[in-house]
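User: Please fill in residues for this 89-position structure.
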């Protein structure tokens, strides 16, 4: 199972991507995360349903310095062997 997230708010320059990598490792989730030019953070997460739900719940809070306004989610496809930080787009 895979889900694409787009996180809106103050989510760039606050350690969001590195914190998400830590959370992904903690929950056994694979995929990727990157900054987008519009100021959002985009991620594609893959794993067991309970782990994905935990990741979405975390994404709604983010790290302490972030201010998350909203998280868009949609079903996606993909299989990954790790969780990586991709270049910004």
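Assistant: Residues filled in for all 89 positions:
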């Amino acid at each position: 199972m895979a889900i694409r997230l787009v996180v809106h708010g103050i989510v760039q320059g606050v350690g969001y991507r590195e914190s998400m990598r830590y959370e992904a490792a903690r929950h056994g989730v694979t995929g990727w995360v990157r900054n987008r030019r519009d100021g959002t953070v985009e991620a594609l997460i893959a794993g067991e349903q309970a782990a994905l739900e935990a990741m979405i719940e975390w994404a709604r809070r983010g790290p302490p310095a972030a201010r998350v306004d909203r998280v868009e989610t949609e079903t996606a496809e993909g299989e990954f062997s790790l969780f990586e930080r991709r270049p910004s787009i």
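For context: The domain at 11-73 is CATH 3.30.70.100 (Alpha-Beta Plaits).
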